[in-house]
Amino acid sequence: MAVYQATTSAPVNIACIKYWGKRDTTLILPTNSSLSVTLSQDHLRSTTTSRADPAFTETKLWLNGKEEDIKSGGRLERCLKELKKMRKERIEDKEPNAPKLSEWNIHVASYNNFPTAAGLASSASGFAALTSSIAALYGLNTFPSSSAKPSIASPSELSLVARLGSGSACRSLFGGFVAWEAGSLPSGTDSLAVEVAPQSHWPTMHALICVVNDAKKGTSSTSGMQRTVETSALLQHRIKHVVPQRMEAIIKAIKEKDFDSFAKITMADSNQFHAVALDTAPPIFYMNDVSRSIISIIEELNRVSLEKTGHLLAAYTFDAGPNAVIYTEEKNVKQIIEIIVRYFPQAESNPFPDPFKLFGGKQPAAVP
Ligand code: DP6
Predict the structure, then answer these.
(1) Could you tell me which residue ranges the Mvd1 C-terminal domain spans (predicted)?
(2) Protein residues with CB under 6 Å of any ligand 1 atom
């Protein structure tokens, strides 16, 4: 008897223009477009195996080896429903001999090789891996890089499904530089991820992940961003008057490999995202003292570098947690790591308690 099983993995992506706010909380439609870089090395990934079997009596999910409840009408169910519909309409209805996988229950097991829900975008890689794994099980995709035959569902179409799981997940369906276009249709069919440039376009771009604290975060992105939508006047200004211009400018900077513009926009957008979190009632604080020290160090390095060379050295960005991601070009990676490690010794030799831990005692991941 044939075994129907597929394993795929998807990396984390780190936003330069942040997604923060939904206009539709069920379909996960954002209040603004966003843009990210998908990390390309093996350090921050989710790997998911899906199996369909007519003997399974129910659909089950394991996360990092622990069985999780599947909430009726929840995010996973919505993703699964869309993928089953695609399988049925695009394959089973057209090929009478195709097994009716869409009618069978499935078992899904997913692993992260990094701390879950610590502001390291685990839901992004998690739902991207889940979507691509079930798409592979159903014969819908060729994700991520195999281009042997055109896929039945394109990465952008699959990004619509991943988006139903977690907004930022839609961007992890592509490598390199990726935009999530907010779209305007109530159905959400135009709210999808598109490739801005592949990783090979700007291979000297690196991202250094500084794990300041790998504990689970206090306010989840999902609940935090809705509180911001309900209470922040600054968010409305950001949506209308800031993000549209920034999206255009950063796409131009990426296409022209203009690091100075890329860095300026990335830092400004991280700072505005955290300002919007502070403008929420009650306020949300994601960064801590170590995060703020990293900002000061990078700002000072950039000031000196600008004086000496006329160019910026690095850009920091922070998601919904205290961990820093530092974008820099290959030629500056060594210098940045040396400086960060000098100011914040790594875990083993670090006299400070947990919140001061940097890199979790491991080498920082250099990407793409
Ligand atoms: C700060 O995608 O985790 O990382 O759609 O509710 O699952 P949900 O939220 P999520 O939010 C990510 C927010 C962010 C910014 C970003 O990745 O763009």
Answers:
(1) 207-368
(2) 15, 18-20, 28, 34, 121, 123-124, 166-168, 221-222, 319-320
